[in-house]
Here is the input.
Amino acid sequence: MGRYLVRRLLQLVPVFLGTTFLIYWLVWSVPGDPFAGKCGEKPCPDAYVATMTAKYHLDENVFVQYAMYMKNLLQGDFGTTYSGLSINDIIATAYPNTLKLAVVALTIEAVIGLTAGVLSGLRRNGFLDNLVLVSTLFLIALPVFVVGFVLQWLFGVQWGIVRPTVSSAMPFSELIIPGFVLGSASMAYIARVARTSIAENRRADYVRTAIAKGLPMRRVVGVHLLRNSLIPVVTLLGTDLGALMGGAIVTEGIFGINGIGRQVYRSIVTKESATVVSIVVVLVLVYLLMNLLVDLLYAALDPRIRYE
Amino acid sequence: MSDPSAASIVSTPRPEQPTEIGAPADAGLPESARKEKPRGLLGDAWHDLRRKPLFWISSAIILLFVVMAAFPWLFTSGDAVNGSLTHSLEKPSAQAWFGYDIQGRDVYARVIYGARASILVALLSVLGTMLFGGLMGIVSGYRGGWVDALLSRIADVFFGLPFVLGAIVILTTFNNTGSNNSTVKIMGLVIASLVILTWPVIMRLMRSSVLATKEADYIVAARAMGASTSRIIFKHLLPNCLAPLLVYSTIMVGSFIGAEATLSFLGVGLKSPVVSWGIMISEGQNYIRVAPGLVFLPAAFLVTAVLSFVMLGEAVREALDPKLR
Amino acid sequence: MSEQSAPGADGSGRPSGRLLEVDDLRVEFRTRDGVAKVINGVTYHVDAGETLAVLGESGSGKSVTAQTVMGILDMPPGFVTGGQVRFHGKDMLTMSAEERRRIRGEGIAMIFQDSLSALNPVFTVGFQIAEQFRIRRGMSRADAKKRAIEMLDQVKIPNAKGRFSNYPHQFSGGMRQRAMIAMSLALDPEVLIADEPTTALDVTVQAQIMDLLGELQRERRMGLILITHDLGVVADVADRIAVMYAGRIVEEADVYDLYAKPAHPYTLGLLDSIPRLDEKGQQLRTIKGLPPNLMNIPPGCPFNPRCPMAQPVCREKIPPLLQIGAGRASACHFAEELVNRD
Here is the structure.
């Protein structure tokens, strides 16, 4: 187990370096002149160019730049923006907000998605099953921004039940709608995977055995059936985290949440290259580690899987 | 999400050009399935499919959208691009069924003409993803060894990038000069970024199918009889992976239509004067309180289009999956 | 209900004093391809301390009967269209679901053929045995574990304490079937249904498992229903044999009688197809043809297309299962002739 963990962690290194370098190269090197449009209509003053070139090592080739950036990163320094703000600070204020939103989204999608999936899987072709099938299809098909707009308009504008945008204190009650929007597609996938998995497993021999043992139905379903059917759901949750982070860009924009997604979008548009790279580094790191965690969870859920 | 383990679903190999994938997906399957007298898995699937209203409804809607994209003037005589400010935000009338937008353009005409960009981008992106991802998957699964290891790691790199984030970075990087880029170039960029960010999914699907079929007895036999690599791939491997690929590509067309709209909405994808549903929603969002139709009408078209592709894919997938019978 | 009467009630002389009776049971499967009549009036019974072997080819309905008795038939596609299953004289098919659940495990328990798929792969074997003590007997975790280890010990699994926390896939086939037996016996059932318990095992292991089953059955005076397609397994263990064909019992007899003088041509065919040591070098005899399609059972005796003795009457009239002597019955128009020939 320990050796497996070390090997997996080592495997993550090239992927991490590859992804972050790709982004670094895209934002710093491809556009050509990093100062284009930085100082309004006029070209930037020479002094400014000289300072910035020294600061971001722009006179070196992109590999050297990247290596120097990584060296600082390993010491916990994400660098500064053009205007001199600490990127560490930006991330430190934005990240907790996104995390809060993601936790709400994950909770909503896990609770609603699993419940809907289990109930419809147990009664295939019933009314509830058809309802779940149709509504999940809708949630999968609808782009996040459309769901966001519709719900914001309905709840915030038409009915006035909630504030259309989230206030800066981010109380959980205001995060329910954005969380639902962010998790909507994943919720639908979870419901569908759980449904298929339950429907397939409920005819399994071991379920039959559990019934033959005279166990109450809720134990047969809640313990024997559910535990087996959870395995594919957990895999899905892990791989879906990337989509959640991507969706955060849209969701945070619509609901005015000052999170990592909004920061990265703003940085991309204003060409704050250092901030873009730093946020991507954080996102990729979280994504990779979550995937690893899911793999380990997988082994805990299914004892037949042995990691050597 | 198509299940890669469903890879060897097709028991009767059926050679077919992968380029047919982009076409209305209902055309390829039924025709050739009908010819098979001894009803195999595909015949069974077609038998099932034929009785599903969902299959017919979604196929009909898709057909409608494809016609709309190809010949928009069949549906409207209005001008989608030019308007007159005198009509600004006018209510629906016999002239313009859905009313006029802020710049006085006919919303109905715009919604109709918007199908073209959305569907074209989605179809071409799916085609590109299938070809590139498919090729990488076949090479990686068939060659194995260091080629496989390298390609898989590269795929991991692109897979690790959140889709929307990656697309924004790519598009702003290559589209930085702003409005003076030609329509074709922007479309090409959107398509390229969709392909670049999603090919690993298809690659993994193909790779696992190839790995699963590679060691099958009939492939080993074919190799023993001296069949060439390309023959094995085209005659034996491809037909076997085709069914899940077909299902996946149909669903993908739907989600790409949504993705294109998302990027346009974020202001990094297609831009005016190109007409697309995403642009319309993006422009209309500021007037949602006064004219919600400006957002909800294109959104309704968008959702219907996405939904019908996803539904078609689902119907075909369910019909192909014997476990669900 | 297990507490209402002790085993041994069969001595009372009442006709309904039987432990478990299946009476004219009828089951069909309704699929999209048509209706398959899987069970067409099956009647058998088992008493305390007795072993009934139910013999038949695959598709003869022997397992479906057992699943209906146990209440684990998949419905749909299965439908019970008639008959009764009585436990201590009470029809289980009309009981409430809760009443029926209480009989499972305590009254009637079951061993399945494929122990790998029948045990839950994600829980330890010990958990799955102890679970019954915890849920059904309300024992504490520690007590339940102790009892589960005792059960593993009783089925002669070496190092029971250590094996308690192993998962099913970590057991060998034979050991897993032993664990399965331990699980089914945990609540001390009065009737045990063993559905092909040794089919998936090596021949040497088969004998060990059958010995173990016989031993435990004698110790506990259980009624044992042994479902099998293997005549060889039956001979040593069974008291009575019921032969099934196309969803019907075609012959029922004591083991000795059945082997000595089969009263149905199908049984005769089965016996003839066993390889014999004293007939070395001769070709094996087989029963010609295939079992009937259950969606379209031929009129008359269902065996008539394959029967070497078939007469016109066999194609017209279904032979009822009639008594033809002490404790034996046959569903053949020519049963008397068969028994009396030399």
Summary: Chain A has two domains: 15-74, 93-301. Chain A has a mean pLDDT of 81. The two ends of chain A are 6 Å apart (CA to CA). The CA atoms of residues 73 and 79 of chain A lie 8 Å apart.
